[in-house]
Structures are given as C-alpha cells and as structure tokens.
Design brief:
With 84 residues, this protein is an all-alpha fold. It has one domain. Helices cover 58% and strands 0% of the residues. Helix 1 packs across helix 3. The chain is elongated, with a radius of gyration of 17 Å.
C-alpha cells in the first residue's frame, strides 16, 4: 500500500465494498452472520475481510490527513482532569 497517492481512492475488493456499504455505512446494518451468508463465506472470514477493510480505511485517512496521527487524536479526546 505504500504506492498510495494522496487524493487517490483506496482500492477495495468487492467483498470489502459489500462490508462497507451493507454493514458499516447502512442505517440498518446487517449482522456478520447475515452478511457472511449473503457473501457465501464464514463469519470468521467476514471478520478477516472487515479487519482488512478497516486497516485500509485507517491507512488512507492517515495519508490524507497526516496531522491527525494517533498521538494527536488521543490528546484531543483525552479527558481533562477536574480541578480540585
């Protein structure tokens, strides 16, 4: 994936696209069991596809938005200590 260029779309397989649309972006997401049956794969294989998809999406976001690395994002959401 090191050949990715900013502005270029992340390449997704047909299964990854199905997981993205039917499970992650849907208003009524399918369960893993339902989606696995639809795709003709095991639930465990679906988890693997989902994991690879999430890695690709995170990687693409890091390339597009390098200022938002994990350390900076963690600092932004870290709760403030209450003053005593």
């Amino acid at each position: 994936m090191s050949e990715y260029e900013p502005g270029a779309p992340v390449e997704l397989s047909p299964r990854e696209r199905a997981v993205l649309v039917l499970r992650l972006l849907s208003d009524e997401p399918m369960s893993r069991k339902e989606l696995a049956a639809l795709l003709g794969i095991s639930v465990d294989r679906l988890r693997q596809v989902e994991s690879k998809l999430m890695s690709k999406l995170r990687w693409g976001l890091r390339v597009e938005f390098p200022a938002l690395d994990e350390d900076e994002a963690a600092r932004r959401v870290r709760p403030r200590r209450l003053e005593e």
